[in-house]
Amino acid sequence: MAEPYYITTAINYPNGKPHIGHAYEAIAADTEARFQRLRGRKVRFQTGTDEHGLKMAQKARELGITPRELSDEMSSHFRILADRLNISYDRFFRTTEDEHHRASQALWLSMEKNGDLYLDRYEGWYSVRDEAYYDESELVADADGEKLSPQGTPVEWTVEESWFFRLSKYQEPLLQLYRDNPEFVRPASRMNEVRSFVEGGLRDLSVSRTSFDWGVRVPGADDHVMYVWVDALTNYLTGLGYPDETENFATFWPADLHLIGKDIVRFHAVYWPAFLMSAGLPLPKEIFAHGFILNRGQKESKSLGNVTDPLDLAERFGVDHLRYFLLREFTFGQDGSYSVEAIVNRSNSELANSFGNLAQRTLSQVFKNCDGSPPQIFGHTDADNALFEHVDRVIAQEMPASYDKLAFAQALEAWMGAVYACNAYIDEQAPWALRKTDFERMKTVLATLYIVIAQLTVAVRPVMPDTADKLLDSMGIAPELRDFEGIRSHWYSPLAESDFRLDKPEGMFPRIELPEGEEA
Ligand code: ME8
After folding, report:
1. Please, are residues 68 and 496 in contact by the beta-carbon 8 Å criterion?
2. How far apart are CA 478 and CA 220, in angstroms?
3. CA count, 13 A, side-chain hemisphere, 29
4. Is residue 301 within 8 Å of residue 194, measured between CB atoms?
5. 293 Cα to the center of ligand 1, angstroms
6. How would residue 138 be classed by pLDDT, with cut points 50, 70 and 90?
7. From CA 480, how far away is CA 494, in angstroms rounded?
8. Would you say the CB of residue 130 lies under 6 angstroms from ligand 1?
9. CA 150, CA 218: separation in Å to the nearest integer?
10. pLDDT tens for residues 340-382?
C-alpha cells in the first residue's frame, strides 16, 4: 500500500486578486506534491480560499456588493491562477461551502464538550488586515505615534461579548509538543519564535464576534459568528470529509505538511494544535513557513504601484520558466526579491543555454546522424561511466533528499551541476567530430547523453511538469518510466531496438529576449 501524504497550502483571502506570494506558495506546494507522487506516495493536495471574516465583509461594503458576490468573483481568480500554473490540487476548497459550516460547528462542539469554550467580554486590540488579536505589549507605533500591529497594520480597540477558547490551558501541552517534535515548525528560526511566544504565557483567545454576521454561526448562539481563523483552519479537516468518518479522513489525517507563509505561523503552530488537542484529534506532522517574495526589494502594494499579476508573468515568461525561477532563485524559507531581469538571466543562462542547449545539441545529432533512432551502444568508457555515476547520484540521492526537505534551490543546484557535467562531457567527447573518425563511438556518446538527459528531465518534472513531459514524449520515454526509480532502470536498449524515431527536435527552452528599450 502506498504511504499516504497530505499537503495543504494556506487558503487565500479573496479580498483582491492573487499576487506573486500566492503563486509562490502554490508552486512550492505543487512541486512537493508532485515529488511525493513520483516517489510512489498516495498524495492528497488541498488549496483554496478563505472567504469569511471582517476583512471580506468590509471590502464588500466598500465595493457596494455582498460578501458572497465578492467571494464568488474573487475566488474564481485564485482557481484560474492555480489551473494556469498547473497546480495539481485534488481539492480546491472554499470556506463558504455548506459542508464547511457543519464541519466547523462540529469542531466547535468538540472543543465545547471538552470544557474549553466560555462566554465573556473581549476588550482589546484587533487588526482587520491580519484578522488577528494583539496584546498591547506587541504593538508598535508609527511616526505619528499611531499604534500598529507587529506586521505594521492598523489596529482598532474592540469591545464585544465573545466566546473564548481556553488557550492558556494548552501552554504546557504545546511546549511538550515542541520538545517532542523539534521539527514541528520549520525552518528552525520559526520554531524558536513560536516557542518563545508560548513560553511568554498564553491568554485565552476570543473566538467569536457579534458585530457582523459574515461567518459560520456559533452553535446555540445565533448572534455570534466564529472568529474567521477558527473556521479557516478547519478547512484542512473539512476537505477530507470531517466530521464524517470518511475513507479520506482515515487515510490522510493527520496532514503531513501545512505549507504557509511566515506571517501566519502563530495561527498554525499555536492555535491550530491547541484546537485539535481540545477536540481530541491528531496533530499535523509539520508546519513549514516560507519567506516573502518582494518586488525589487519592496512589498508589492497598490500605493507603490508595483503590483504584478502572476498571470502576466506566466504569460510573458512561460509557466515552467516562472516555476523554475521562483524555486531556484531563493532558499526556501527565506525572503526573496525578484525582478524581470533576474527571471530573464536565470532562464537564459540555465534553461536556454545549459539544459535546453544540451538536449537540443544531442537530439539533433541523433536526428541527423542516426536517422532519429536512439543509437546503439558499443561499450562504455570511463568518461561515460563517470557521467552516469554523477547523474545517478544526483537523481537517486541528492535531489530526492532535497525535495523531501523542501530545499528546492538545493535540488535544482544539484541538477544544474549535473547539467554542467553533461555539457563538459559533450564538449570533450565532441560527437560531431567522431562522425567521420569513429562512428561507433559517436553513437555510444550520443546514447550516453540520451540516457542522462532523460534522467535529468524526469528529476525536474516536479518543478517543470509540462516542459519535462513534452521533452520526454519527444524522446519516446514511456509514462511508467517517468519517476525516480523507473528512469534508473534498463529502458534504453529496448527503446534503441524498437522502431521509435525522433521527430526533428524543437528547442524547448528558447532564449527570452526583452524588447529593446524595455526597462527590465
Ligand atoms: O493569510 N510572499 O491569507 P492571505 C510570499 N487566509 N507569500 C506570501 C506573500 C508574499 N509577498 N504575501 C502573502 C491568509 N503570502 C489566511 C490564511 S490558512 C488557514 C488562512 C502568503 O491571502 C501568506 O503567508 O493573506 C499565506 O501563507 C498565503 O500567502 C495566503 O495569504
Report:
1. no
2. 58
3. 35
4. no
5. 11
6. very high
7. 14
8. no
9. 29
10. 999 999 999 999 999 999 999 999 999 999 999 999 999 999 9
Radius of gyration of the chain (CA): 26
**Cβ contact 315:302 at 8 Å:** no
The domain 340-497 having CATH identifier 1.25.40.10: the answer here is no
Query: Strand pairing partners for 293?
Result: 336
- Which of 35, 31, 86 has the alpha carbon at shortest distance from 319? 86
Nearest to 275 by CA among 245, 242, 252, 250: 242
493-508 residue pLDDT tens: 999 999 999 999 999 9
Query: Could you state, in order of their start, the residue ranges of all structural domains in the chain?
Result: 340-497
Q: Which three cell numbers stand for residue 322?
A: 516562472
Q: Using one digit for the tens of pLDDT, what is the confidence trace for 447-461? A: 999 999 999 999 999
Q: Which of 27, 47, 264 to mutate to test the pocket of ligand 1 (most atoms within 8 A of CB)?
A: 264
Q: Is the pTM of this model over 0.95?
A: yes
**Ligand 1 pocket, residue 491 CB under 6 Å:** no
Which atom belonging to ligand 1 lies closest to the Cα atom of 235?
19
Task: Kindly state the average pLDDT of the residues 53-57.
Answer: 95
Closest residue CA from atom 29 of ligand 1: 22
Measured distance CA(100)–CA(46) in Å, rounded: 14
Distance between CA atoms of 106 and 110, rounded to whole angstroms? 6
CA-to-CA distance for 398 and 408, rounded, in angstroms? 11
Instruction: Write down the residue that cell numbers 532523460 correspond to.
Output: 454
Pocket lining: 332 vs ligand 1, CB cutoff 6 Å: no
Give the 3-state secondary structure of residue 506.
Answer: coil
Cell triple for 48: 483554496
State if residue 264 touches ligand 1 by the CB under 6 angstroms criterion. Answer: yes
How many CA atoms, within 13 angstroms, populate the side-chain half-sphere of residue 274?
A: 26
Quote the ligand 1 centre to 235 CA distance (angstroms): 15
Supply the ipTM of this predicted assembly: 0.99
Ligand 1 near 373 CB (within 6 A): no
* Centre of ligand 1 from the C-alpha of residue 129, in Å: 12
Say if residues 322 and 313 touch (Cβ distance below 8 Å): yes
